Amino acid sequence: MKAFEASKRYFEIAADQLKIDSDRRDTLLIPNREMQVQVTIERDNGQLENFIGFRVQHDDYRGPMKGGLRYHPEVDLDEVRALASLMTWKTAVANLPFGGAKGGIGVDPNSLSTREIERLTRSFVDQIHEIVGPDKDIPGPDMGTDHRVMAWFRNQWEKYHGFDPSVITGKPVEEYGAKGREEATGRGVGLLTHKLMKRLGSKPGESNVAIQGFGNVGTHAAKFLDEAQFPIVAVSDITGTYYRAAGLNVRALLKHKLEHPRGLLEGFDDCETLPPDALLGLSDVDILIPAAVGGVITEENVDQIQAKVIVEGANGPVYPIADRILSDRGILVLPDILANAGGVTVSYFEWVQNRQHYRWTLDRVRQELEHTLSDAFEKVWQTANQHDVSLRTAAYMIAINRVQRAGELAGFA
Ligand code: NAD
Questions:
Q1: What is the pLDDT of residues 23-35, one digit of tens each?
Q2: Could you tell me if the CB of 214 is within 6 A of ligand 1?
Q3: Euclidean distance between CA atoms 105 and 180, whole angstroms
């Protein structure tokens, strides 16, 4: 199943609950604008190379559009469209005054030098600078991009439009970035997992956690949950699953990753090593956190899952048919549009600070993050109970209602 079709299915289930007419559904689903551009760079060896870049602006009823930039070989228009629509629902569930967008380039950043990635970013900005801006569309980091890419993006955009760091978020902290942005998505995943387990009457020490993906989201989720006394029994990355029934030493894992030349867990030997996919089927796992890529839990492998709770750190990790099977089996899924909303929430805080020319402390960022996510969680939990629907459908219902209401107030045309 294609990524946009999957996110559309989730939208339709919630739209059925809300009894939304088909013309309104189209208005809410069809992206406002899709831009595809040629991104040409000169490689270090003097040869020209062309890549395809995308920016999809899904919806702006609730405010300027917001969404990351992904550099990955599998980036295509369908994936970017799906991720852009998820951003519309995510900013709405978290009640941030933003719409949704996403962008990316079909490229393997590991195949380029640092200077080539800089040229790629600047060339991409040359193509799309007119449609982005602090009050139009604000990019941020995603897979394959980081604070350096954000700094190059801002610098190139400012050459056309003048000083305004609020054009992009996820910048280096000393270059108008926000403290706490880097940890925000994983921290939010951890905070919400803790909240959910508390609501289910389970104490941290009683629930084993497995985390797929040990990148930005996975590491910070692991750190938070470890500090909150949850035993992390397994983590994985592209090199394998690292498993220890009595609980892994998370500090040692983080140190190993930091010291590995490519930031991988390869060679970590204070535990058992299994193939990467083995993580999904581990029998002594209560909480499974997919925090790597989309589409990892499908109709084909859903039967392996033995966890009681899934918290979607990644975007779109569970396909709709698998989602229904999980629900029939009583496995609770905390959906991506809520679970990983911590990142865009602190991106919003960065934008606010830039616009006010003011800096918040890390404590303030963390407090406001917890406040925003707690409010969103409570609303989703109540809606799910009130309408007897899944947490995912409840989250979509809240989001769609908010976007629709903004559209109605604006006149919808
Ligand atoms: P990242 O590139 O920092 O990390 C990805 C990790 O997943 C790496 O450890 C990689 O080795 C691992 N991985 C990739 N394929 C794997 C596989 N098949 N099995 C096991 N591990 C695998 O990316 P990230 O920023 O942590 O993002 C992860 C996910 O979270 C993505 O879906 C992203 O869209 C989503 N997300 C990220 C943010 C953010 O702020 N970074 C915000 C919201 C959502």
A1: 889 999 999 999 9
A2: yes
A3: 26
Q: What is the largest CA-CA distance in the chain?
A: 62
Query: Average pLDDT, stretch 243-261?
Result: 97
Q: Whose CA is nearest to atom 8 of ligand 1?
A: 215
308 labelled catalytic: no
Q: Per the structure block, which two tokens stand in for 49?
A: 């190379």
Distance CA 223, CA 118 (A): 31
Mean pLDDT value across residues 50-72: 97
Q: Is 238 in the pocket of ligand 1 (CB under 6 A)?
A: yes
Q: Which of the following is catalytic: 102, 179, 223, 257?
A: 102
Whether residue 313 has its Cβ less than 6 Å from ligand 1: yes
If you search the block for the tokens 């040229």, which residue do you land on?
Answer: 119
Compute CA distances 239 → 214, 224, 400, whole Å: 10, 23, 39
Say yes or no to pLDDT of 376 above 80.
Answer: yes
Ranges assigned E (strand) in 192-294? 209-212, 232-237, 240-243, 272-274, 287-290
Residue 413: predicted pLDDT: 57
Q: For residue 44, what is the DSSP state?
A: T
Arithmetic mean of pLDDT, 235-254:
98
Residues 9-21: tens digit of each pLDDT: 999 999 999 999 9
Task: Give the chain's domains with CATH numbers.
Answer: 31-175 (3.40.50.10860), 184-339 (3.40.50.720)
Does any ligand 1 atom lie closer than 6 A to the CB of residue 293? yes
Test site for ligand 1: of 236, 237, 334, most ligand atoms within 8 A of the Cβ:
237
What is the model's pLDDT at position 329?
Answer: 96
- Whether 411 shows a pLDDT value over 90: the answer reads no
Distance (angstroms) between ligand 1 centre and the Cα of 313 equals: 8
